[in-house]
Model the fold of this input.
Amino acid sequence: MKGMRLSLPLLFLALVGLGNAESDVSQFARDYAPYLRFDSKEGEGNLCFPHNAQEFFEARKSGDWSRKCNRDYDSVAGGSIPTYWHAMTCGYHLHIAYWNFYGYNEDCDCCSGERDAWWEFIVVKIRDWTLSPHMHEVMFGQKNGWYTRIPGHYETFNTTHPVAYIGKSNHGTYHDDGGTGTCCYYEDFRNPGSPNKHMVTWDNLIELKQEDGEGWMADSNIDWWHGLKSPIFRDDWDLCGLVGCTGSSLQVCGTCGCHKSDIGDDPF
Ligand SMILES: *[C@@H]1O[C@H](CO)[C@@H](O)[C@H](O)[C@H]1NC(C)=O
Done:
């Protein structure tokens, strides 16, 4: 009986939490959505801003296989390009993944790295999200790998929004600016400079849903994305199973996300 009495208030709190949860999740997605910062050269030549995935999908389905590069900064600054998200409750915590789509990646050096269609992600962990929510780890994805930073080791915009710097050619997300302009893991240029081109992703968020979502979300055909799986069909769709990094913990040219991960490859 003693154990019973202790657990009832907890059960009550849990039920209240569940009741509010559904409506809260979209609000959390807005509150913690990333603030993207682009290289000063983004939008020039073949250096592309994020792209509307549904538009790209429809073009490919109708037989248009031409290169699609969004050079229009106004579309990004004006909120007409979506960022796609989904969230999962993992224990006491809420994990929210944000995805951006790019129509084309330019070569990251003189002559390699280019491809059509590319997806990049950021994952935010909100600890104790029903009782005392606070943003903690943020995962930055880039070049088929990723790493995780803890508070104080990434920048924020207006307190709750993690800042991500976007590699100008291959569009990886990084916690810092810089780069030396090669194809090595951390070296894609990302220097916003005075143009200060940025994207307020919470101005246009679309939830990833296999049912009742946009047409492209339900289609598992990788041909539309030039051989890539779209977010819903990837292994990392289960946000509760993520690990903190991939690749070497030494800074090498190839995948070495663990070099800048604050939690190594521990569970995210
Ligand atoms: C950032 O915060 C300021 C002050 O609250 C607010 O006026 C501004 O609209 C916010 N910026 C964005 C992009 O939400």
Remarks:
- The chain has a mean pLDDT of 93.
